[in-house]
Backbone:
């Protein structure tokens, strides 16, 4: 089974802090994704990556950056956390096959105070 | 950007009832996926649809890829309490990234 592991289940950070959310997958998947999930808004794509050192903006990239230095690891970075970035963050991965389904981690619930 | 309209937003049903939910889009998708998310967990794939008109079952779940490629529905027959959760439709965009509907929250009373 595919395993996508997010390093923290819960995080509490202060406004202005730099925040790193880490995600690791063990299935040698080429594609990795970061979504945020908010009540009433569903899942919204922040960034995705289809190869090491490659990244593409999703629907809501503002205030975020990403890093993919190794194939198995995809990091989401909040350069200066703000309260409107309080959310559930979900990492996912998929193979390079066209239309391959995504496999999700269990999420990181981030609270910015 | 791309948008999926998923309905209903929530459902409250009795155990044993059948459930139907659907997704529509103004854009054509090549793949429709249905996920379920339980509290404290990430979404888990239920059914994947790859061809227009395709009808696929997974146990008590049945999903169809609309002929126009702009819609899909998911049916759950004879619901049970463990069906509780949020159900998301998703369309594949740009070959790799998914666009999700806002979810249907299902509550089942026994």
Residues:
């Amino acid at each position: 089974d595919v395993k996508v592991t997010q390093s923290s289940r819960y995080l509490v950070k202060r406004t202005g802090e730099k925040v790193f959310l880490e995600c690791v997958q063990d299935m040698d998947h080429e594609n990795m994704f970061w979504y945020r999930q908010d009540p009433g808004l569903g899942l919204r794509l922040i960034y995705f990556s289809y190869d090491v050192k490659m990244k593409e903006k999703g629907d809501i990239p503002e205030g975020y950056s990403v890093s993919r230095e190794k194939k198995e690891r995809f990091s989401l970075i909040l350069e200066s956390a703000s309260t409107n970035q309080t959310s559930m963050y979900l990492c996912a991965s998929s193979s390079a096959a066209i239309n391959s389904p995504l496999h999700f981690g269990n999420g990181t619930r981030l609270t910015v105070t | 950007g791309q948008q999926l309209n998923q309905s209903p937003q929530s459902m409250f049903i009795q155990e044993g009832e059948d459930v139907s939910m659907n997704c529509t889009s103004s854009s054509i998708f090549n793949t429709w996926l249905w996920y379920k998310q339980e509290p404290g967990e990430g979404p888990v794939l239920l059914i994947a649809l790859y061809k227009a008109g395709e009808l696929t079952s997974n146990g008590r779940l049945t999903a169809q890829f609309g002929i126009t490629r702009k819609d899909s529905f998911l049916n759950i027959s004879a619901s049970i309490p463990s069906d509780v959760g949020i159900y998301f439709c998703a369309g594949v965009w740009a070959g790799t990234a998914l666009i999700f509907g806002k979810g249907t929250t299902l509550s089942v009373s026994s």
